[in-house]
Design a protein that fits this description.
Distance between the termini: 57 Å
Radius of gyration: 29 Å
CATH superfamily of the domain at 104-224: DNA primase, catalytic core, N-terminal domain
Largest sheet: 5 strands, antiparallel
Low-confidence stretches: 437-451
Number of helices: 26
CATH class of the domain at 104-224: Alpha Beta
Mean pLDDT: 85
Structural class: alpha+beta
Strand order of the largest sheet: 1-2-3-4-5
Number of strands: 16
Length: 570
């Protein structure tokens, strides 16, 4: 692949503002644009986009790059995934050189694509599989759109096909398609309807197969790909590639359990539906490699979720567990009420309007669980016990004190239990569970350490210095203000921040474009603050003032710090 040529063509056709604004809301700020950073929590925008440079930079967390790195980080893709996605959007055909050598991941993706095509052809030749899916209410169009396939009742049909294409046994095994025994490969998926699982760019990374045409009670109803170099079941949700645009534009996602539920929901017009089948919820936004997890990506698209799991006891339990995970990630959760024993696919097949009403009438998860408690018993003491067991584990995950108060009032009005009693019990519960911080809270402390004031000042000063080098008529007073800073230290600042020169100049330009202030006065303030930080460090290094020299030096430092404070500009 001639990636450089493809990259240049894509950048020529796609504006960075258009790409980023298709994911997050941006507003114009002078010649640039700004937004709330999608890569860390913030209340005021610190994420800036430069159309001239074709780049972005977040002053809060340091995220930076171009359209490719943005898509990579936002959607949890590798470079080639973002390249494929943006090439399709730009209408650019990716070019290959005859001497281009694929890396392992590209080869694995190619094998998965070949397997998908193989399963699709098997399906087209199997009238029984088609009759079964059509009987379940699916149309040929939705089956084709989701590339549903079929695995024959054969031990080696896929293995033989991929081998004939020249793929090595170990590579086919690596992507989870076969198991090797005595040097021979045996198909993992046999006699199953196959649902490809894709990453957010639409590349097939795994499969989920439903048993079909074989009455074998020892076989699992569903068989899913194992974790592979392409597939981690916590990093993706089934159908995310098809649903992501609708999730963002509609402002919420619908999460169902099974593949049939998802396909039928999409067919009914609810294209913001995704499914957990073949995957698993992660209880953090990112994994150990800082790659976005499945709910992390969903939250970036929209923090609002409706869980629409099966209406049986297993579905209700799964919905409760999933709600706890999503609440711990600070998402807004609703739960849909399905008729007992019915799944979304069955409801949509019998009455699409019923499905529409179910989604429309979904309830906040705490209200949903509270109504279940009220329906199940009229005994006040038992209601109180169930509130502690069922509601409090959810309520403790709610971040907003105002929301918590509203839920407590709802509990009071619906159960008749005095608010004081509910509050007292909840405070006891909180004290007992205070140490149970969620993994996400812990990772936030690890991943977002407070940036030291000195580092912020150094970065700003370095940016100003680099900026002045390119603008001889700008900030002529700068050299006068630098007199109080040692030359050795200035050289150290230059050396340390040289790799980030372009980004720092971008930051300074943006800062002074928005700040209507005298630049010289502001730079003087930066240097005074930086000098104060250096003096505070010297003061600490003196340690115990056990000699006259140390005491004299300490008093000199204090005097200079006092002068700086008196001279500091407001």
């Amino acid at each position: 692949m001639n990636s450089n040529s493809s990259v240049d063509k894509i950048k020529d056709r796609l504006s960075i503002v258009d790409v980023i604004s298709s994911y997050i809301n941006v507003i114009q700020a002078g010649k640039n644009f700004k937004a709330k950073c999608p890569f860390h929590n913030e209340k005021t925008p610190s994420f800036f986009i430069s159309p001239d440079r074709g780049s972005y930079y977040c002053f809060g967390c340091g995220a930076k790059g171009d359209i490719f790195s943005f898509v990579e980080q936002f959607e949890g893709l590798d470079f080639y995934g973002s390249l494929k996605l943006l090439a399709e959007r730009a209408g650019v055909t990716l070019e290959f050189n005859s001497n281009y050598k694929k890396d392992d991941k590209e080869k694995y993706f190619e094998i998965m694509e070949e397997a998908t095509s193989f399963f699709e052809k098997n399906y087209e030749a199997n009238d029984k599989a088609r009759a079964y899916l059509l009987g379940r209410g699916l149309t040929d169009k939705i089956i084709k759109d989701f590339r549903v396939g079929f695995a024959e009742d054969s031990w080696q049909s896929l293995f033989n096909y991929l081998s004939s294409k020249g793929y090595k046994n170990e590579d086919i095994e690596k992507v989870g398609l076969i198991k090797i025994k005595d040097g021979r490969g045996y198909d993992r998926f046999r006699s199953r309807i196959i649902f490809p699982i894709c990453d957010s760019s639409g590349r097939v990374i795994a499969f989920s197969g439903r048993i079909f045409g074989k009455d074998d009670k020892e076989e699992a109803k569903y068989l899913n790909s194992p974790d592979t170099p392409l597939f981690n079941k916590s990093n993706v949700l089934f159908g995310i590639d098809k649903a992501k645009t609708a999730i963002r534009t509609r402002g919420y996602s619908i999460i169902v359990e099974g593949q049939m539920d998802l396909l039928m929901s999409h067919q009914a017009g609810f294209t913001n539906t995704i499914a957990v089948s073949g995957t698993a919820f992660a209880d953090s936004l990112v994994d150990n490699e800082s790659k976005i997890n499945n709910l992390g990506l969903v939250k970036r698209l929209s923090p609002n979720i409706i869980f629409a799991f099966d209406g049986d006891s297993a579905g209700l339990r799964a919905s409760y567990r999933a709600s706890k995970i999503a609440l711990s990630l600070d998402m807004q959760i609703k739960v849909a009420t399905l008729r007992e024993g019915k799944d979304p696919a069955e409801i949509i097949l019998s009455n699409v309007d019923e499905w529409k009403n179910i989604i429309k009438e979904s309830k906040n998860v705490i209200s949903f669980e509270l109504d279940k408690i009220i329906e199940s018993t009229k005994d006040t003491r038992l209601r109180g016990k169930k509130i502690r067991e069922i509601i409090f584990p959810l309520l403790i995950l709610v971040k907003s004190s105002i929301e918590k108060s509203a839920y407590i009032e709802e509990m009071r009005s619906k159960t008749g239990i005095p608010a004081e009693a509910i509050i007292s019990d909840f405070e006891d519960y909180e004290r007992g569970h205070r140490e149970d911080m969620t993994k996400q809270e812990i990772s936030q402390f690890k991943d977002n350490p407070k940036i030291k004031k000195k580092e912020i000042l150094e970065k700003r000063l370095a940016g100003v210095i680099f900026w002045q080098e390119n603008n001889e008529n700008e900030i002529k007073e700068l050299n006068d203000f630098l007199n109080n800073i040692e030359n050795v230290y200035l050289e150290e600042i230059r050396r340390n921040y040289e790799p980030y020169k372009e980004t720092l100049v971008f930051e300074v330009e943006k800062f002074y474009e928005e700040k209507e202030k005298d630049i010289g006065r502001d730079i003087r303030e930066i240097i005074l603050n930086l000098e104060e930080e250096l003096l505070n460090e010297k003061k600490l290094l003196l340690g115990d003032l056990n000699t006259e020299d140390k005491l004299i030096e300490f008093n000199k430092i204090l005097k200079r710090i006092e002068e700086i404070k008196n001279n500091r500009l407001s």
